[in-house]
Amino acid sequence: MPRRSRLVLPGVPLHLIQRGNNRQICFVADEDFAVYLHWLHQYADETGCRLHAYALMTNHVHLLVSADRAQAPGALMKALGQRYVQYFNRTYRRSGTLWEGRYRSCLVQAADYLLVCQRYIELNPVRAGMVEHPAEYRWSSYRSNAQGEGCALIEPHEVYLALGTTPTDRHASYRELFRYELEPGLVDEIRRATNGNFALGNARFSEEVASLLGRRVTRGQAGRPRMTREG
């Protein structure tokens, strides 16, 4: 059975996850994280991708990007993945694959879900029990989005920019979103959409994406279609 093509639309945010093969470690030392971010910045610029949020975990990566060309996110992940594997194999004297096949992704409805998805990404270290607060984790975009820590990688989305008229106001409003954990239902919804290559948004968003792409963009009903008798 052929693989389902990814859902990608110009200008629509995309949540990406790339995992280590068999969940193996992808980042061993601080230098590994720094190298990955360096090349992420380089290839995002070269492919025309705008990075809104990220979290580098020990065995997987979360990115939230948007681009004006539908092919740009795929080009970014291909160039970045290949370059980092070369570095990792050379550094740790290994060979073979590092990543688990294709990256997984979902289109994100900006108006209702972009900030939810950013919180999901930046709260990953907290859910993993690595830190108690996202500000304590060095390898995510939280400090940039919430505290104004300089990061040339991050290009805020217009939804984020609407949080306030000044950077200070936006940072304060963004921090306020983290006073409470994400509801388990939202976490599950994001995971299902990303792992299944579906649209993350309300019914109207899903219908619009399905119409533009000419394919189903939400989960189908479990089981076989019900048969009906004629006559």
Describe this structure in words.
It holds the Pfam family Y1_Tnp. This is Transposase. It comes from Stutzerimonas zhaodongensis. Residues 9-124 form the Transposase IS200-like domain. By secondary structure, this protein is an alpha+beta fold. It has one domain: Alpha-Beta Plaits (2-Layer Sandwich). The chain is built from nine helices and five strands. It has a five-stranded mixed β-sheet with strand order 2-3-1-4-5, sandwiched between helices. Helix 1 runs antiparallel to helix 2 (72-91). The radius of gyration is 19 Å and the shape is globular. The chain starts with 13 loop residues before the first strand and ends in an 18-residue tail after the last helix. Residues 221-231 have low confidence and may be disordered.
Short summary of the structure?
The chain has helices at residues 30-47, 72-91, 110-122, 124-127, 142-147, 158-161, 167-176, 184-196, 203-213, and strands at 14-19, 49-56, 60-67, 104-108, 199-200. The chain is α+β, with helices and mostly antiparallel strands and 231 residues long. It is globular.
